[in-house]
Specification:
Strand content: 15-25%
Shape: flat
Number of strands: 14
Strand order of the largest sheet: 5-6-9-8-7-10-11
Largest sheet: 7 strands, mixed
């Protein structure tokens, strides 16, 4: 293929494959057959590797360069990355590595096929979803998963909250931001996210959901599952945009928690509906005011300049939804859902993945987010992967456990853990043990006439 020589299939069945050059006068041939009848592997039995056909028969638009072949060749470029080369990058790859000029559409199809090889098909993702969730719960104690299907067993919703996040939420400020973002895979859908924020201002992801759309039923189902893992108290604050479906779902599910509006979304509504950017300074001062008298001063300024905006903030939105000093509960210094937007932007490339592949990315991101001093590392090396426990010196590949020597996964993990690879080696492989094992001498006993043996030993009888 790299030489731009095309071939045609002379014979092909379950046990034999014969191909020849497209030029009938050329001697190039290849014949392959099964190693044994019951095997699935073929071996080349005959190969004539020299072309004697005209150069005019060469074709850069190689007909054997199908999207399947291109996808198989370019697939390694997508291992361990979220994006990988686009269609134009695949065209360049095919030209340089395969020697074929392919169309943009074939490059797009090859890229799609490569994604399927690496991440599975969307249909396969739905099929393995129950087993995937089972393994998550089995290996991560306290993890909560839910799958909702319709009367025909077709997927509707899913919910996922990791046990470590549920337990850790006890030590977080009880302010949870919720929002959704569009998925771009074959079956679309909406990714719902609920996240807290630690005292250092870092996102603390709590729960994830995938639903059909941001409607009241979907939000009600998601928030019902969320309520089971975080509870419902008057200390809890839920921050979101002002979508009617979210507002109604929160009021239906949470009886004690307080609902607050995202101040940034309110600001965008002011800009878009009232075209008054110049009062944003006063608005944000009103949002962040701790004392009501200061708040009144900022609102008076807004009212004098834009009375319609002031009425909108007071009557339609409500001071208690966006103003810090009027909020009935505790939302601390969290006035927006930016923490949710940060998580959504973190997954911008993975939103085209099948659902299970997307959840894999989420799991990987959370693992790094929720571990302050990690002792376990998830290491991928091509198709091989392993979970390394640095403290207990184990790996799921079992090589580390049995040989007591660091496997490739452990060596990669020790680099990130900033520990010496020698500290992971069993002491039986160390120089100290080696010296101790070979440090003593076996002394010869000399001639029998020189032996000094006690009488009770010398007189003991041992017969043949």
């Amino acid at each position: 293929m790299k030489g731009n020589f095309e071939f045609r299939t002379r014979k092909s069945n379950r046990s034999l494959w014969v191909i020849e050059c497209i030029d009938p006068n050329c001697s190039w041939r290849l014949r392959a057959s099964k190693i044994v009848p019951e095997s699935t592997k073929f071996v080349i039995r005959k190969y004539v590797g020299v072309h004697c056909c005209s150069l005019l028969n060469r074709n850069a638009n190689h007909r054997q360069a199908t999207y399947v072949v291109i996808g198989e060749q370019v697939a390694p470029q997508y291992v361990g990355v979220e994006k990988g080369p686009g269609p134009k990058g695949v065209q360049t790859f095919a030209r340089r590595k395969v020697g074929a000029q392919i169309s943009y559409y074939k490059a797009w199809s090859g890229r799609k096929h490569a994604h399927t090889l690496i991440r599975g098909s969307p249909e396969q993702s739905f099929h393995i979803l129950p087993s995937y969730f089972h393994m998550l719960e089995k290996l991560n104690p306290g993890t909560v998963t839910r799958i909702e299907v319709d009367g025909e067993s077709r997927f509707k919703y899913l919910f996922l909250a990791f046990g470590v996040a549920i337990r850790g939420f006890r030590y977080m400020r009880k302010v949870v931001g919720i929002d959704g973002t569009f998925l771009k895979g074959q079956y679309r859908g909406i990714l719902l996210v609920a996240t807290a924020q630690d005292g250092n201002g870092q996102c603390y992801p709590l729960a994830w959901g995938i639903v059909d759309s941001e409607n009241e039923d979907a939000w009600t189902w998601f928030l019902t599952q969320l309520k089971e893992v975080i509870g419902d108290t008057d200390e809890l604050a839920l921050i979101s945009d002002r979508a009617p479906s979210i507002k109604k779902a929160i009021s239906t599910v949470f009886e004690k928690a307080h609902h607050g509006a995202c101040a940034w979304h309110v600001a965008q509504n002011i800009k878009n509906n009232f075209k008054c950017v110049d009062i944003m300074g006063s608005y944000w001062s009103a949002v962040n005011a701790y004392r009501c008298e200061n708040f009144v001063g900022y609102m008076t300024e807004i009212s004098h300049r834009y009375p319609r905006v002031a009425k909108y903030l007071e009557n339609e939105v409500g001071f208690e939804k966006w103003s810090r000093c009027h909020y009935p509960g505790l939302r601390y210094n969290i006035t927006t859902t930016n923490m949710v937007e940060s998580l959504n932007s973190m997954l911008v490339n993975a939103r085209v993945f099948p659902y299970v592949a997307l959840l894999d990315v989420i799991q990987e991101k959370i693992r790094h987010t929720l571990q302050l001093n990690p002792v376990t590392y998830h290491v991928k090396r091509g198709e091989l992967e392993g979970v390394v426990d640095i403290f207990n010196k184990t790996c799921t590949c079992k090589e580390f456990d049995i040989d007591k020597l660091p496997c490739v996964h452990a060596i990669a993990a020790e680099h990130h853990a900033q520990v010496s690879v020698y500290s992971l080696v069993s002491p039986y492989y160390t120089k100290e043990y080696y010296v101790l094992a070979y440090g003593e001498t076996i002394y010869p006993i000399g001639s029998q006439s020189q032996w000094d043996v006690p009488n009770e030993v010398a007189t003991r009888v041992v017969l043949p």
